[in-house]
Amino acid sequence: MNLLIALAYLIAAVLFILGLKQLSSPKGARNGNFTAAAGMVIAIGATIPLLHFTTTGLIVIVIGVLIGGAVGTFGARMVKMTAIPQMVALFNGVGGGAAALVAVSELLSFGSHPPFAEAFPSVFSIVIGSISFAGSMVAFAKLQELMTGTPITYPGQQVVNGLIAAAIIGFVIAVLAIASVPFSFVGLMVLALVLGGADMPVVISLLNAFTGLAVAASGFTLNNFALIVAGTLVGASGSLLTKLMSDAMGRSLGNVLFGAFGQVKTGAAAVAGKETRSVRAGNAEDLATLLAYSRRVIIVPGYGLAVAQAQHAVRELAELLEKRGVEVNYAIHPVAGRMPGHMNVLLAEANVPYEQLKEMDEINGEFKDADVALVVGANDVVNPAARSSPGSPIYGMPILNADQAKNIVFMKRSMRPGFAGIDNDLLYDSKTIMFFGDAKDSLTKLVNAVKAA
Amino acid sequence: MNSELLNEFTFFILAIFVGIEVISKVPTILHTPLMSGTNAIHGIILVGAIVIAAGASSPLTIALGLVAVILATTNVVGGFVVTDRMLEMFKGRQAAKPPASK
User: How far apart are CA A309 and CA A303, in angstroms?
Assistant: First the structure.
């Protein structure tokens, strides 16, 4: 390899590392993204002089870059903030697909009897890249609600999952690379189907790490240091990030991947008998009075707020209450929204002051002094079953202590359970008032009622 | 094992440690942007896609190269742009406040 190119790759690798470092602190995060992008430009720029282009090859590259650039820019610019998770899934999936295709192409060029050291990374890249591609597409479909968000379970599922895993490993060993592509696709489709909507962020993060590893493997095949280093960085940091995310949900990674949610069926059946319990529903005027004459209100935003695009309405309500001397804070659960940090992004977009956004550990002690906990489109993150029912799929997940507030107001579209698919006893609590409807409509009604109160 | 493979393997192992060490203190609110940022970085596969597309000659390799370049470019461009959009909102407050209040 040319010395200058090697140096350029080294600079790119350093920029990636610095970029990651900056991305993990709030101050430098945005610069970190630019730093990494600069590394990318250098790595690509340094590669060009290395190559002997055929005319066809050059045309193919230009067309490909133009199409991909347009799709990427358009997708990233147009996507609504609420749809960010599925967009990340999509971008991750195409990266995995690209890694697999690069490896397929290399493997074809080796001929019929490639040496093991050459063939192994290719096969690895094809299998892992395909898994990432297929899994990300399933995650995208589920988050976009093209597929059902509840876990799809069937008898003997764990056995089937085990067999699929064994089959995939078998294919890797067999070095039947191209033949294995469709199989690994199918395998991971099934595995991803097992997981419920609440787990998708962790799954996407895991697949992100997978893509990184697939890219690193392609780097071994092509003897390209930039691919090896950048791919491995992503594989390693992505794996750690996946663990940090599942920690934030209070579940082990194994638990997320191998189906504690398989028990949902029995749990739901047990709860079904209790569905005749009554709930207290309130109207906007009553609730406005309650809120306007409170001293401390804690708002618990959830995904329902995000889908209803109600972040501006909630900020308006909060400002109105503050004018009347009510202390308002937001309690942000680590996995509120659909990805850790997602809710902070949405509320920041609506100009909610930073100081009012409190993380779980910081605010959990304050609920007992709060007059009202206003739960907007959240459910599982305030479900006391996480503390009290060892049989529940969310048992052990840290939750917000909304149940300790003097009054709890739930804004929900219906009594339908959250992503975990389990009933929430808090909805039936005597301190709880339900306010049914779309979060944005409900908040607008409340804002008007508070103005009149 | 030849020396080039050994070199590559050394880089691989060292990069694992760096990757873990460098993000070990990330706060929860940055999990999503960080995931998106690392997502953009593995778009480096575009380098690989360009390498295989450059020498493409048969219809099969042309097709593989074209699709690989499209997918990889989408990954790189989309990844960085969407990460920037997310992070823009975090810092947006201080910057957006003065013009709004005057």
Answer: 10
